[in-house]
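Format notes (please read before filing issues)

Several people have asked whether sequences and structure tokens are stored in separate files. They are not. Every record keeps both together, in the order shown below: the sequence lines, then the token lines. Line labels are part of the format and must not be stripped during preprocessing.
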Amino acid sequence: MSGNSETNIRIAPCTLEALSRITLRRATSRDETVRQLLTEHVASQEQEHPEDRLTHISTLLRYPRPPRWRSEPRTDVPLRVRAPADLLERARAASLRLPGQHPRSHRDYQGRMLTDAVTTAIARDEPFDDDFLTGLLPLLRHGAALGLWRLTTAATSTRPEKVWLLDANAVRARHRLTDAPLDFADQHILRVAEALEREESWHASTRFETATALARRFLTGPQAEEREQALCEQDKPWDKLYQDLLQVDDREERRLRRRQGSTSYDWTGRGGTAVWRARRRVDLEYFEDWLVERTRNDPAAGVMEEPASPGWLLRIPPAWLAHAPTPTASGQPPEPYATWAADGRLLAFPYRNRTAFWPLLHCVGTPGRQPVPGFEPVAAAAAGLRPEHVLGFIEAVLIDWNHTFTEEPDLRIALDVSADQACRFGFITAEDQHQLMAEARAATLQIMDDFITWAAADGARPSYLHKLREARGNTRDFHRLTRRYPTHQRPKFLAPRASWKWPGQSVTAELVAGSPPELLQWLAAAAHRRSSLILEQAMEAAWHRAFDQYGFRM
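Then the structure lines:
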């Protein structure tokens, strides 16, 4: 059938067997059967309140589980799905999304939303089970699934997470006693805790094992449907259980691990990075509020403070404003803003159930707003970004890359660009470029020599050392060999690139100064890439901080 999109999902063998039975009963091809099931399922889901939509228990429990190692056999089977692209997108939108889940994630994370849609659609028409699924309530509402997941996260929360969640409990308790307005600090604690619970969960095998244990406790037996209702309502008995699971004292478990010399995996790092992501999410909410609500007379600079953000300074041209107009009756952004965004004259990003537009200027002498002249090259660098990522791009083009801080941030905030691009735009000479390349080459060879010396001292086999020496000078081959070394404690091999530090301020400052369009587009893309890398480094630092402060020690 023409006009269909194709994609692969992986499902349980018993699910595929159920699909075969439906195909035989309907006397249609497997592709057509899947399309029919999805069409019926999506139409039903879209008629329900989001919390009343259905999901299959296997989605919540991450079943079948992915193999832990590449050598392990898979227990799921592939299914090719061919259906209209619009139907696939609607199916994903109406499927269960656990907090922290992204469209494409590490194998520890919940299966993709389309897998849930297909599995649930099959189960609604033809029930199925196997040794793992037998006895479990097969279909449950999204509200109940999220209620069980929140109990799971409470039972498996790490110490960095518990600090914020228990602080939020204390804030709520104080507020119930006094009913006084919350100050900013208390509001901030509640916002971070809510983001941590509802948006930034970490996923891992241990969490799905805990979810399975809770599911067998609540979603089996003659009272399964009654308990599913309780999970959906999340009333006082549920909240008491949640608090009990969250406040379990793990000191006895830690003492036992020390006595036994246990080295079982410590999930503190994942908890620390989840907290970092929650705090970063709240920081971006503050940033978008500042962007939309500021006027021409408000401060035009602000620091995204550590540790949730890298501590960089944002500078905005004072006259540049954002606007979030009231949507039309159909829910769409009004004109002319929608056309300006479609034409690449400004950027659009989600803001409080609306769409905000930036940058805009007040019209001189008349009411109204207009796009900033010459912004098109910067907007072009954001082409292809998802709407939820546009705010991060705006942040990147506002960063002052050479601000002098009273106290230097923990991370190096600098816009390093490739030497060849710097030469291309005339910032450095060809001789400067060759010098930077020679320095990078020398640094790479030194890193290779250091790794060979370390491997020899660690007792590497002579044949392996011989291969390393032969690959010295070939970055790709040498890197491949370092990854084969059988220890997680090996030094990371990172070959430095020939780069040049950008001496200017922000991308927007370059636009105001009249820089050429080609440079603006390249610089905006480079600033976004660099800021994304620095944010990844900040999250990695949060991982290490969590272990330093809360990690298990023998």
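For reference, the curators noted about this record: The chain has 22 helices and twelve strands. The longest helix spans residues 517-550.
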